[in-house]
Design a protein that fits this description.
Helix content is about 50%, strand content about 5%. The protein is built from 5 helices and 2 strands, in the order H-H-H-H-H-E-E. Helix 4 packs across helix 5. The protein is elongated, with a radius of gyration of 20 Å. The termini are far apart.
Length: about 140
């Protein structure tokens, strides 16, 4: 599930800008570029949300997530040519996602907390068993 749409990008940044970003080298447009940037942005957000224990993809998307998904997708569309403003908005989005992942920010939708993942049965133990010594500290 994507957290924003092409229309969300147009509503926030203008149709002209999005058309420029999806143009290709031969003067045509490649709508696939925008779709891929949206999918990538949503995947990046899911990584932070899953780290915070949210069930992903979110079934109810808070508007703040849509906004940051647009900022992240836009940044990805600019590739290496992102302006200072585009980069700053991306960085603010990632800062917010890190705060969510750390539990400093809790997401809500319609005034209710979003559901957290119920994957307690998937959490296991990690163990380490020593084996033979590969390096003896004496150099190579």
């Amino acid at each position: 599930m994507s957290y924003c749409t092409r229309q969300d990008l147009i509503d926030r940044f203008s149709e002209r800008e999005i058309l420029e970003l999806e143009s290709n080298d031969d003067g045509g447009t490649d709508a696939e570029k925008v779709a891929l940037a949206i999918v990538d942005a949503s995947g990046e957000i899911d990584g932070y949300l899953a780290g915070a224990g949210y069930a992903t993809p979110l079934s109810t998307v808070p508007p703040i997530i849509t906004g940051y998904a647009c900022d992240i997708a836009r940044y990805r569309l600019y590739d290496n040519d992102a302006t200072e403003q585009v980069t700053k908005r991306y960085e603010l989005g990632i800062k917010f996602m890190r705060a969510v992942a750390k539990g400093e920010v809790r997401l809500t939708a319609n005034g209710l907390p979003l559901q957290e993942s119920n994957n307690a049965d998937l959490v296991g133990e990690a163990s380490f068993e020593g084996g033979r010594q590969v390096f003896n500290g004496g150099g190579f």
